[in-house]
Amino acid sequence: MSVHTAMNLGGPPAVVAYAMAAGVVALLLPPAIGLLERTPSWVLPAVAVACLATLTVVFVVGVPRSADLVLGVGSDRANALDVALGELAAGRYPYTATTYLGNPITPLPGALLLAAPFRFLAGTAAWQNVVWTALLLPLLNGGWRLRAGPTLLWLLTVAGGLEVWREFLVGDDLVSGAVPALAAVIWTLRAARPDDGGSVRVLTAAAVALGVTTCTRPHLALVVVIVAAAVGLRAGRNRGLLVGGVAATAWVVLIVPFLLGGSARFSPLHVAAKVTDERGLSPAIVAIALVAAVLLGAALWRVRPTSDIAVGWFCAAVLAAPSLLSLARALFETGAVWGADLTLGAVAVPFAAWAVVAGVPVPSTAPRGEDPVPLAA
Prior knowledge:
Blueprint: H1 3-10, H2 12-37, H3 43-61, H4 68-71, H5 76-89, H6 109-122, H7 128-141, H8 148-160, H9 162-170, H10 178-191, H11 200-214, H12 221-235, H13 237-259, H14 273-276, H15 283-303, H16 308-334, H17 348-357
């Protein structure tokens, strides 16, 4: 996902150097976690707060002119949200407008809904990056009690990932915009647990949140399928159908009003050009979607994901698929990978990070009972 930024930094050698650095970091991660686990309890919160404060300051200051060629000047995606929400506020159809680069508005209505508070309260939708980046920290930690492994992974993700860092600075929402969807996935899976009482109302509310937060990019619809299948395996077919049906209904409610004027005006369909180089519902993108659905169904039937780890990796895999398709197209057309647009797969980053830490047990905060006292003989 960071190939584009690494290429801007120094071409293919920079890509290779970044890959090697990532490998070294992966090797050093276990001892670093062990070291952090032995530090005083205040260290992790202090490091997290310092990181968030630094990110916020850098975000406010903006991209320096010297980094324009590397990071880009502003964000077409953030501008798309601002423009679309401005059109809606003025009572106009949002998807006939264009960004300052002349590109169509591609975020789905769910993205507009999530970005609206930031656009109208803070002046720009890009501020959601700060909030969603902060939200990712407790999601990875399984709560507000910070742990060494998940916290270090969060630090490496938000500060060490070139594409994540670039998107945060310029206001792109591919990575940060997936965090609310991840939160909804976690909530839905928790609500489906039989040992949690299994409230249908809570599960329905979680499914609504799942539908809204995934209705941001077209390929996030596959996340709904994965989560519904996982809930069905965990809590029974009826609850799986409930989650899938409610989330799908949320998609319909959000999208259909914008389709009434004709699908040709609904510019999010143009995001297909990231994969096929053709805008709209071309035969190629329809064929790819059908093949993806069949492959996903077969994989779900074969693997039957029930654990959080399996769900996380399934979601990460399908969300990274557009980047792999773009990579394959670049190899086929040019014989090289350096010019491929791999950014669309950045949505997978939060899900992959969660999958890495999902199997780590969360320490209990319940007070321990008294130590047993042996009875006198």
